[in-house]
Amino acid sequence: MFDWQKLSQIRELKEYFDNDFQGFKKRIEYHIHELQKVEKEELDKLAIIRAIEVTNGCVQHGFRRNDENCLTVEQTRECMQKVIGFMNDQKVYFPSGKSISFVESTNQLMREIRELYQDAFKKNIADREREFYACSTAHFLVYGRQRLEYAMQLVQQEFEFLFSKHYIEKGRKYIASYIEAILSENV
After folding, report:
1. What is the rounded CA–CA span in Å between residue 152 and residue 157?
2. How distant, in Å, are the alpha carbons of 33, 39, 94, 102 from that of 36?
3. Could you give the CA distance from residue 89 to residue 13 in angstroms, rounded to a whole number?
4. Who is most buried in 23, 37, 117, 142, counting CB within 10 A?
5. Model pTM greater than 0.85?
6. How far is C-alpha 95 from the chain's CA centre?
7. If you ran DSSP here, which 8-state letter would residue 185 be given?
8. CA-based R_g, the chain, Å
């Protein structure tokens, strides 16, 4: 189903696989098992919000590194505020007028992931970063190629004006490293 060797070479995951390949793989498999309980329609919507988050993450990292194509302070702040708003409301509002919302069990899952992210990257709690990456990887793998490609297409269609074509492409490339490790879509 998955090319674990390819996954182990992804920059964010390499250290965890190098330190304890089987242990980290088991944490990813645990999260895959949990995600398989989520309804397909909810996975479709989660893939969209994940694509938005990844793209925003690329914008934020580009700004902090002062990349050549980084957005202005105001644009970067607007991206962050928009995405934080989606996470707080647990609803995505598209410029076209459409929106997506989630069932309560998915809202709870999103709250748990957000807490894990904050524990790992805001509070620097030991071992939470490893768990966040295991969970995040499982999400990419369970969403699968088709969902993620559709989600990125939707992000480009609806939010290119916000994120820019450059950072949407960066988000697409980030996600592609995970997609390339999917051997079979039968998760």
Report:
1. 9
2. 5, 8, 27, 16
3. 30
4. 142
5. yes
6. 21
7. S
8. 16
